[in-house]
Write a structure and sequence with these properties.
Elements: H1 16-24, E1 31-39, H2 59-76, E2 80-89, E3 98-107, H3 110-117, H4 120-123, H5 126-132, E4 133-141
Antiparallel strand pairs: 1-3, 1-4, 2-3
């Protein structure tokens, strides 16, 4: 007998509860955001038709447009794209779970991250991200001191 399929939630935006918990962590100093990204086969610009390219594009191509739009605002805020690379299936983790891309973004503080994320011109291009992604994860990371190891 085949087990029933468990519906999988897609995560594209933080919830209010997750945002509140992030703020309550009171992270001091740098924060690195680990992004796991799964692209749509075809980008879906229905929520932001004004951003849609003249010809249809893949989710991967729409995400490239998002990065191109975002980098100037990220850099203005003191942030840095540390890594953007291909993903795949886990070596250790669920066998049926894969991520098309992985991205690491560093900000010098949570306040700088929040200011970047609320920047009106950054937000004007956020539709590229929404069009590109089928699913994502965002995990804020902080460095451990050598005393914690």
């Amino acid at each position: 007998m085949t087990p029933p399929l468990i519906p999988r939630n897609n995560y594209l935006e933080p919830t209010q509860e997750a945002g509140r918990a992030f703020i309550m962590r009171a992270i001091a100093g740098e924060v690195v955001m680990l992004n796991l990204l799964r692209f749509r086969t075809d980008a879906d610009y229905s929520a932001a038709p004004e951003l849609a390219p003249s010809a249809s594009v893949s989710g991967k191509q729409a995400f490239a447009l998002y990065i191109e739009h975002t980098l100037p605002y990220l850099q203005q805020s003191g942030g840095q794209l540390l890594f953007l690379g291909a993903g795949g299936h886990f070596l250790i983790g669920p066998a049926d779970e894969y991520w098309d891309a992985v991205m690491l973004v560093r900000q010098h503080s949570v306040d700088a991250f929040l200011a970047f994320a609320a920047h009106p011109q950054y937000l004007a291009g956020l539709g590229h991200r929404r069009a590109a992604l089928e699913d994502s994860r965002l995990l804020p990371l902080t460095a451990l001191s050598s005393q914690c190891l």
